[in-house]
Write a structure and sequence with these properties.
Blueprint lengths: L1 H57 L2 H10 L24
Length: about 90
């Protein structure tokens, strides 16, 4: 029994220390990957917010109205409204 204490315990302790070092090293690598992913998430979130602002700006009524005027569109008047009347195009006929 004393032989086990003198030989076995140091071997088990050595194995546990080596295992702890390996696990700590692996966790350091994982921590670096997590930091990299957090940075990418922050960058993509900022880009998404910027794109949302650009979409909101481009689809604003004043922007659309200004672009329509530049393209030659005019506001509708009573004489410029086109009506198809009673048409069977969109009616479900059985």
């Amino acid at each position: 029994m004393k032989k086990f204490l003198y030989v076995g315990v140091p071997i088990v302790a050595f194995i546990l220390i080596v295992g702890q070092i390996l696990i700590a090293n692996e966790l350091a690598g994982v921590r670096t990957n997590i930091h990299s992913l957090d940075t990418q998430i922050a960058t993509l979130t900022d880009e998404r917010d910027l794109l949302r602002q650009q979409v909101a700006s481009a689809s604003a009524l004043t922007t659309v109205s200004a672009k329509a005027k530049l393209a030659g569109f005019i506001p509708p008047t009573k004489s410029s409204v086109l009506s198809l009347g009673d048409s069977a195009v969109a009616i479900n006929q059985k």
